[in-house]
Amino acid sequence: MKALSPFLAQRLARCLVLCSALCSAVSPAGSAFAQSPAAPPYLLDNTEVRDIRAQVLGRDYQLYVALPDSYRDSRKRYPVLFVVDANYAFPVVRNIASRLHKHAGMEEVIVVGLSYAKGDAGTYSRRRDYTPTTPRRHSYRSDMPGRQPAFGEAAAYGRFVTAEVFPLVARLYRADMGRKVFVGHSYGSLLGLQMLLSQPRSFEHYILGSPSLWYDAGIMFEREKAYAAQHRDLPASVFFGIGGLERLAPGKRRSRSEEDADMVEDLREFDAALNARRFPGLKTRLRVFDDEDHASVFPFVLTHGLRAYLKSSK
């Protein structure tokens, strides 16, 4: 084949550059126009984010805060819902609480979501911060490469909430700190039980969904017995909720392990143990939601848990 002249080679190179530029501007749909700029994110009304340094833990977190619609135009103080697992639960709680106010006349509330630690994966953070102990036997794997899974810091995390989060919220918002509600689910409910059995007056009401009572061979049953042996009262209001499908599969033998736990029966047993103590200041309610499982039950637990505590005009 005859070689191209320098003039033709230069023209061919320019054509290739032009074709390359045109091809890079073509979208996957075939448009010859550059892709449009990224669309702005959807933002929840009346919400804001606060950074907080957990001095007692040496870690950084965020608080997601939702204010009532009437907040800007009023001087009143509002009950406060403190919600763990906020990356999932904060928008759910914020929207359900708002809907219950608008359509069922329920009191307005401030919602404070407690984020996972900055720089930590969600599973890593919640296992460490929400569990009461390091399990005596486990085969958990870390979701953070190069770091072993961590457990057992619920007591320290609870002190962070009461000693650092509470004062910040009280200082920045018109929060009625005499009407604080804890909202948790699964491991989050383990944290709630840890606080209930160590510093019960931290909250005026606890909403605890599907607590992982199988954790560490049923350690919270041991904690409940230890509390009862040393105290004559447990001043608290507690709403327990769980899905009716959170049961052990037929034919399997129930145990205090994650694989063979009957979470419904575990919760019934725990609630019965609390009530058998006849603590004068304790009030518990337990609701099993038929046809709901561990993943779907949280909105039902939240709705009924709020109705058990907040006032309604209807």
UniProtKB/TrEMBL annotation:
Signal peptide extent: 1-34
Keywords, in A-Z order: Hydrolase, Signal
Chain intervals for the UniProt region annotation (Disordered): 125-144
Keyword Zinc: no
Keyword Magnesium attributed: no
GO molecular function: hydrolase activity
Family that this chain belongs to: Belongs to the esterase D family.
Protein name as it appears in the record: Alpha/beta hydrolase
